[in-house]
Amino acid sequence: MPVGAVLLFYSWAPSQEGPILRCNLSSWYVEPKYRSYGSLLITTAIKDKSVTYFNVSSAPNTWPIVEAQGFSKYCRGEMFTLPALSRPVAGAAINVVSESSGPTDLPELDLLRQHAKLGCLSLVLNCGGERYPFIFQKHRVKRILPSYQLIYCRDIADFVRFAGNLGRFLLKRGMPLVLVDANGPIPGLVGFYTERRGRKYARGPHIPRLGDLAFSEGVFFEI
Predict the structure, then answer these.
(1) Domain region containing 98
(2) I need a surface site. Which of 16, 50, 165, 205 has the fewest CB within 10 A?
């Protein structure tokens, strides 16, 4: 009979070299009597060297264990931002993408549609003839304060540039606070940075970048 389990989220992610396979190593459990086999369970789950594995929800007491498993820290913490307090960019317009709508010439359209189907807020910001995709998911800080978590953008610099526009759009939906992965305070954003939570690890050929939690456990449940 099963005495342990590990939850894995596999997905294909775009890159300049073409689609890459990556896996979000999420929760795991082994019954106390067999706890000594826990390391073997994880080692077996992450043995494919062609896959990029990442862990986005490790508890502080497990950080040494995660590092001993060959994972490297790529995100040190996160920033709690109030983007509505930033100055908006003139001429920017924001449209919601549903699972059946959106600009057909946008490279990330399928990504936006799939996340909309999973309950995320998928947006396309239009400015100066260019389109910028963003994905947010509802989140509660300490399970109390409602907010959004930034799930996807092409570059954190895009979020910083259009923080005022995005913040006002999200504020109308009752969410003034946005959580953003960061390795320090982000210039141009109003808020505060912490390393008490938000640390993320990865191992494999393609380390994730900040601002890309697509198809991770953060899409499906709060982390």
Answers:
(1) 79-197
(2) 16
